[in-house]
Design a protein that fits this description.
Blueprint (H helix, E strand, L loop, with lengths): L1 E5 L7 H14 L4 E7 L18 E5 L2 E4 L3 H12 L7 E8 L11 H11 L4 E6 L13 H17 L11 E6 L9 E4 L11 E6 L5 E6 L12 H6 L2 E7 L6 H11 L4 H6 L1
Parallel strand pairs: 1-2, 1-5, 2-4, 5-6, 6-7, 8-11
Antiparallel strand pairs: 3-4, 7-11, 9-10
Helix pairs in contact: 1-4, 2-3
């Protein structure tokens, strides 16, 4: 198996080393692991691509590259330049330092990398390690992902929906709970949730020269979410697995809204 890995924490991030270890296990002795990751941290860039300026790509070692761009840029660089003759069988993005459950998924460059791979027609999985009080004192805060990552991916490869004939191919978002590996309770397949009373905000700041800046601040990652969602599963000690796709349509609303708006007489409305 040939596996491409990327992340949003940067080429030197410890989570990428964990992911390389997981990918090497999955690829086997006859396989290959290719790394194309951002040269610098790209957390929070979501599915951003560098559409209006060029991206420099540097070869660091055999099958290891850094790109001055986003995780989605890294996928495009791999498929359109670096691996054109040897395309990957699987794309893994992560292991993110911190969770990408709940509303975090909408901002995540880790998710963005996996999403771009799916849009390009490739099987893709995003992996993130939830952090919290019980991981703060661990010698390896990624030990949950390190120990259980390959097992979960193998289960997904065996049982996930990898068909590519839909308009938007599925990819998978995996979050490991904020616990020691031995305390992880199992796996739960759950939808994306939303933390209650927790959202991103800003902290304004005035520099000594009088110029105005702001820091973006996150909400509490321990805030509860509706039972049966990814956040709730993680806080209950389970690995969450969430099927996702790059389709933001609210399909449940289409029929009623179409009944109200389709075939509207715009000429008559404009005359009112």
């Amino acid at each position: 198996m040939r596996i491409l890995i990327t992340n949003d924490d940067g080429i030197n991030a410890p989570g990428l080393e964990v992911l390389h270890e997981i990918a090497t296990d999955l690829a086997g002795p006859e396989g290959e692991v290719w790394t194309v990751a951002p040269a610098f941290e790209q957390s929070g860039v979501a599915h951003c691509i560098s559409y209006s300026h060029p991206t420099m790509i540097a070869r660091l070692a055999l099958r290891r590259y850094a790109a001055e761009g986003s995780p989605a840029d890294c996928i495009l660089a791999a498929l359109g330049d670096l691996m054109t003759d040897t395309p990957p069988d699987l794309v893994l993005s992560g292991v993110n330092r911190g969770n990408n459950a709940g509303e975090n998924a909408m901002y995540s460059g880790t998710i963005g990398g996996a999403m771009e791979a799916a849009l390009q027609g490739l099987p893709a999985i995003a992996l993130s390690q939830y952090l919290g009080p019980q991981t703060a004192d661990l010698a390896d805060p990624f030990e949950g992902a390190r120990r259980h990552g390959a097992t979960v991916i193998r289960q997904l490869l065996d049982h996930g929906d990898w068909t590519s004939d839909a308009d938007f191919r599925l990819f998978y978002n995996v979050n490991f709970p904020p616990l020691a590996a031995a305390d992880v309770r199992g796996v739960r397949v759950v939808p994306q949730g939303k933390r209650q009373g927790s959202r991103f905000g800003v902290v304004p700041y005035t520099a000594p020269n009088g110029r105005r800046f702001m820091w973006v601040s996150g909400g509490s990652q321990q805030a509860p979410a509706r039972h049966g969602t990814d956040v709730a599963a993680n806080l209950d000690g389970f690995i969450s697995v969430t099927p996702m796709r790059a389709d933001l349509t609210c399909h449940a609303s289409l029929r009623d809204l179409a009944a109200a708006l389709d075939d509207t007489d715009l000429t008559a409305r404009a005359a009112e």
